[in-house]
Amino acid sequence: MANARAVVDVAEYADVLRSRWKLLAIGAALGAMLGLVAILLSPARYVTESRVEVRPLVSQGDNPNLDIERQVNTVNERAIASSQRVAERALSLIEVANGRPLADPSVASDADQVAVDSDAARAALENVSVSVLNDSQILVITAEADSAQRASDLAQSMAVAYLEFRTNAATVSTSAAAAALRERQEELEVELTELARGADGRELEYLEVAKREELAGIGGRLANLAAIEINPGTVLDDAKVPETKSGLPPILGLVGGLLAGLGAALALAFVLDRQDDRLRDPASELETMGLGVLGTVPVGRGLFGGGTAIAEPTSHTAESYRRVQGSMLFSLDQQDKTVLLVSGPNNPHSATTVAANLAVSAARAGRRVLLVGADLRRPSLHQRFGLENRVGLSDVLSGSGRLGDALQQWHGAPNLRILSGGTEVDQPAVLLQSQGMGRLVQAVKGEFDLVVFEGPPVLQVADAVDLAPLCDGTLLVVEPSRATRTGVADAVAQLRRVGAQLLGTVVAENNRA
Question: Fewer CB within 10 A of the end CB, N or C, for the chain?
Fold first, then answer.
């Protein structure tokens, strides 16, 4: 069925937007509403930050030139500042502070006595991030919490706890080095005392001098350790209490939701459109299937006077039927053909209306026309002309009626004779495929210039397919509002399989104005 599909172009996309505008409007409105509600109902989150300048440990006894070359490994420092030990210390500081400044020494000392659950520390770290400011030695500690004060306390306590951790680490290292030196100092003093008690000799003198030099060196190193000034860094910017919660403002939630809803509605609209098998551009799509379009005619009942399906002779509707009738008769005359079947894929009303108006139009043009109602299951042709249905086609074929008695004349066109469907038949195939049907067709060919059979829908029953081989040509009536590409292609395939010659199609616009 690939050849039944029309090529999608920009105009088709525009048609999708026009036809699905309600869906787009609903999607945009729902998206905007949901976006706004999501923003308004989202939990309050407050974000703030503190900034810490990290410095190398500087010793007063070291060479100043070496101090200048010292650098801080910010990768390691970031890991330390965001470690669980620092988080546990920070939570201890918060718990002890209770309104006092975190810089208060008593807070730090009291915090040593507070044990913090490790799960609480891990939870706190999920709301803390540490970054380096522009490749500098400044750490930015950002904290988020459900209250402004909690966010401020967490960011500030993490900064203080980090500097304390760094100070403590340096202090422990220095103390350990000093303790090792003092231990060696005591050992040397003991050894010197023992040497003083020993015998005289140059070897003993040499040992004494060496040990005293080592002892003097230890004294100097202890003096240097005592002079070390531990400077881990400083808090450059204290964490402020945020005044507003973080996140998107309501207007962005509204706009974002609107765009998201519109996008989802657009996607759904095109999905639904791709699944919609109806004819979008009847003329071009029917031409793609190899079906010539003779014209477009209206079939809505409101377009015809008196509640019938026959157009007034001077109306625009009648003019459109005259154009189609002219094309149809030209095609039939060129091939010296007389008998025409008018049917559609699935809507009997459209085919009946087109058949009736084409027959009337040809009769008014001076042709001798016979219009036959061949829908024997639901005969309705006579109703369009206000005629009786006592004797019709089914009665003639079954032998219960004579053709001459069944033909009726309509006052609106003297050259038109009408053979109604007659008595309803449950199984009309027996009659339509009978020899009597073939004889009837041959009989009326010599009496009329044009014989028009109004056939039932091709896709609903097999009657039209049975009738098509007996006719010189078939006219397919396609109503875009009801027909689908697949349905039209299927109807065409069924007709062609029995050898029917398709003269073309008529597009029936169901305008009910």
Answer: C
The continuous run of DSSP H or E covering 267 comes out as helix 250-275
Strand partners, 51: 140, 237
Closest CA to 422 of 393, 386, 399, 397: 393
Q: Which CATH number fits domain 282-509: 3.40.50.300, 2.170.190.11, 3.40.50.920, 3.90.45.10?
A: 3.40.50.300
State the DSSP code for 278: B
Q: Burial letters for 153-190: b for 16+ Cβ neighbours within 10 Å, e otherwise?
A: bbbbbbbbbbbbbbeeeeeeebeeebeebeeebeebee
Residue 310 corresponds to which tokens in the numbers above? 């026959």
Instruction: Report, in angstroms and rounded to the nearest whole number, the Rg of the chain calculated over CA atoms.
Output: 50
φ, ψ (nearest 5 deg) of residue 116: -115, 135
Kindly report the pTM of this predicted structure.
0.54
Q: Which residues contact 293 (CB under 8 A, 6 or more apart)?
A: 282, 283, 286, 287, 504, 505, 506, 507
Tell me whether residue 367 is exposed, middle or buried, using C-beta atoms within 10 angstroms of its C-beta: 0 to 12, 13 to 18, 19 or more.
middle
The Cα 327–Cα 319 span in angstroms is: 13
Look at residue 69 in the predicted model and tell me its pLDDT: 41
Can you say whether the dihedral through the CA atoms of 408, 412, 416, 421 is positive or negative? negative
> pLDDT, tens digit, for every residue of 219-245?
777 777 676 677 788 898 898 988 777
Please name every residue paired with 339 in a beta bridge, in sequence order, or none if there are none: 451
